[in-house]
Amino acid sequence: MTLSPDDIVTLTEVLVTIMGVAVTWAVYHGSDRAELPGDATVPDPHEVDDAMPDTRGRTL
């Protein structure tokens, strides 16, 4: 079975659209739990710092 040039273009458009949706979902999935600037609490200065701070959900 041979695809015509129009079929190849249509198939490419569909695949690129699906990939774009997948990448967008991967980027934003779970972003509602991310710590945003200004959301961090100020720690008590009399407490000892954590040796291994929890960095899950943080982004640069």
Biggest pleated-sheet summary: none
Overall pLDDT metric: 83
Order of helices and strands: H
- Shape verdict: rod-shaped
Instruction: Classify the helix fraction into a percent range.
Output: 40-55%
Question: What is the CA–CA distance across the termini?
Answer: 48 Å
- Report the β-strand fraction as a percent range: under 5%
**Secondary structure: number of strands:** 0
- Radius of gyration (Å): 22 Å
Protein described:
- With 60 residues, the protein is mostly helical.
- Helices cover 40% and strands 0% of the residues.
- The protein has 1 helix and no strands.
- The chain has one helix at residues 5-28.
- It is rod-shaped.
- The mean pLDDT is 83.
Please tag this protein with its features.
60 residues; mainly alpha
In terms of topology, how is this protein built?
Blueprint: H1 5-28
